[in-house]
Amino acid sequence: MKITALLVLKCNPDGSSDPVILANATDVSHFGYFQRSSVKEFIVFVGRTVAKRTPPSQRQSVQHEEYKVHSYNRNGLCALGFMDDDYPVRSVFSLLNQVLDEYQKNFGDSWKAVQTDCSQAWPYLDEALTRFQDPAQADKLLKIQRELDETKIILHKTIDSVLERGEKLDSLVEKSSDLSTASQMFYKQAKKTNQCCTIL
User: Fold this and answer.
1) Fewest C-beta atoms under 10 Å: which of 9, 21, 82, 133?
2) How far is CA 74 from the centre of its chain?
3) What tens digit of pLDDT does each residue of 76-129 get?
């Protein structure tokens, strides 16, 4: 599972002009060195096209070969993610929602006045691109489910090991009851012996 790019765009509600890129973070390191610039151009082109065709307050996913482009348009502010086909959809839209929340928290409504693409880097988006390579970081439910599965595996292993040792535990219980009988006899014998010494 890999996130290749995250973008934030301003979409015009009437769709008359191309969306404006507000922030862009890409990781094309898994492509060949000479392909990287072409891949970045392709990401921008596809990102604009998908964002333009995503209606306000809607989410959509577009398949392209082994990649999916996910888009969430929140009243003109649109977040896009380019992911592998294996990345869970619920995690994707949770991530895109977090990106939009963070963008509005940092920049407010200033994005509405932007008319040209922004080339200034937004550190949060670069950080999100790295941090959310693991879908569990974007989706808390997925993270909790994974932890529960790990706990369940550990619990099954513990129960299985106890059941395997069941026979040994039973033999220890039998020996302990024998030991307590022997201990009782030793105690009685010691008591008799000590009585003899106490009289003197």
Assistant:
1) 133
2) 23
3) 899 999 988 888 888 888 888 888 999 999 888 888 888 888 877 889 888 888
Report pTM.
Answer: 0.66
Using an 8 Å Cβ cutoff, are 83 and 68 in contact?
yes
Q: Tell me: the pLDDT tens digits for 142-173?
A: 566 666 666 666 655 665 666 566 555 556 55
Is-contact 56 73, C-beta < 8 A? yes
Q: What is the dihedral of CA 38, 65, 70, 58, to 10 degrees?
A: 120
In whole angstroms, give the CA distance from residue 155 to residue 149.
10
Angle in degrees, CA 152, 156, 160, rounded to 5? 175
Separation of alpha carbons 79 and 97, rounded Å:
8
> What DSSP character marks residue 17?
S
Please give the C-alpha separations between residue 63 and each of 41, 67, 120, in angstroms, as whole numbers.
18, 6, 29
Distances (CA, A) of 142 to 90, 149, 156: 9, 10, 21
